[in-house]
Amino acid sequence: MMQRIATLIVLVAVLIPAAPKNRDWQTGMVLDPQDNLYFGHTYSHPTDATMSFGDARTGSQIHVGTRSPGDDFVLDQYVVESESYVYLAQTMRLRSNKPFRLSANMPVKFAVDKKRIWLLDAEGNEYQANIVKRKEKLQPTQ
Questions:
Q1: Inside any domain, residue 7
Q2: What is the tens place of the pLDDT at every residue in 72-127?
Q3: Does residue 8 sit within a domain?
């Protein structure tokens, strides 16, 4: 009996953090991370400086260069504009995984909590990224 109670307590403790959190959703716009007024040219493509040499007769090959295991990861950047702020967000993924289904000049629902941002795409899929920078939105002059 005591083991069942202990198992139930552990199960409840595990499920509580997994419960969906009510977020303060806002509406904004995804800006082009390569060309925007706030963060300029933010996205950089890593260069692959490796060279391969091989012997076709034996099938042997040697790779020379600066490629590291970290090259299997991609750093995606997103710029989200709200009514008062603009956020530069980043997330890292495996190169084999697909990026978030968000594109420039696309309306987006998002929520901010400290240094994290949650984004909803058009199908309602929720994504999480880290906020790297936040700037006040430029207001139009009259």
A1: no
A2: 888 999 999 999 999 999 999 999 999 999 989 999 999 999 999 999 988 889 99
A3: no
DSSP 7: H
What would the pLDDT profile of 24-83 be if each residue is shown by its tens digit?
999 999 999 888 888 876 544 444 445 555 555 666 665 555 555 557 888 999 999 999
Tokens representing 87?
């956020």
Tally the domains of the chain.
1
Instruction: Please report the DSSP string for 73-135 in residue order.
Output: EEEEEEEEE-SSEEEEEEEEEETTSPPPS--TTEEEEEEEETTEEEEE-TT--EEEEEEEEEE
- Residues contacting 21, CB < 8 A, separation 6+: none
Would 128 be classed as within a structural domain?
Answer: yes
* Residue 13 three-state SS: helix
* Nearest alpha carbon to residue 65 among 48, 43, 45, 86: 48
Domain that holds residue 37: 22-42+50-136
- Is residue 3 situated within a structural domain? no
